[in-house]
Amino acid sequence: MRIYFLIFFLIFFNFKNLYADETEKWLKREIDIILEAYKNQNLSNENRFLLIEKTINNNFAGTGIAKFVAGEAWRKSDKNTKKIYIDNFKRHLALNIASMMQGYSDQTYELTKSKYDKKNQVTLIDMEIFSDTGSVVVTWRVKESKEKFFVIDLIVADISLVVTKRSEFNSMLKKVDNNLSKFNEVLFDQNQESYQKITE
Q: Which residues on adjacent β-strands are paired with residue 130?
């Protein structure tokens, strides 16, 4: 009986290792696309951002994150307002991630550790970024859905991007009485301002 248990354990352990390796390879490929875009001097700032935005939108669970951070305002809104909000949020997310990654574009990094959270069915991948003054660890939370990987959160210095965004958006939504339609106008203007800065 013990030998069967041992065989099962080894198969299961190796499967999880292979799964983690596959997830890491996918993540490294997508991170490198963003970092290489910053190093490509032939790209204009606008084209560079549009390339990065496309990569982020393809690989982040933007719609799911958007719903979560909107909270009660999402549930109260009509279909068209929700669609406009998701588009606004995805650009907002891309602008945030692009700005953060730009700060790391001239540094080296290494994916140092992977851990599969069986309960939540999420892989956590630590990315250590090295600079002259030390290093910082960024943890990517990756989930597989319909045979495709998606980043569902990004944790920097133990601070969750998604939780931070929910708190930030809740404060902004209160100012417009949780009216997602009005909030869309605020978010659109904020995106325009950020877009000008990152592409100028």
A: 108, 135
Per-residue model confidence (pLDDT) at position 16: 44
pLDDT digits (tens, 9 = 90+) for 4-25: 433 333 333 443 444 457 889 9
Catalogue the long-range contacts made by 62-69 (C-beta closer than 8 Å, 24 or more residues apart): 62/86, 62/89, 62/90, 62/93, 63/90, 64/152, 65/89, 65/93, 65/152, 65/153, 65/162, 65/165, 66/90, 66/93, 68/162, 68/166, 69/162, 69/165, 69/166, 69/169
Number of domains in the chain: 1
CATH code, 98: 3.10.450.710
Range of the domain at 28: 2-199
Rounded to a whole number of angstroms, the distance between the first and last alpha carbons of the chain is: 67
Cα 97–chain centre separation: 7
Closest CA to 77 of 186, 184, 188: 184
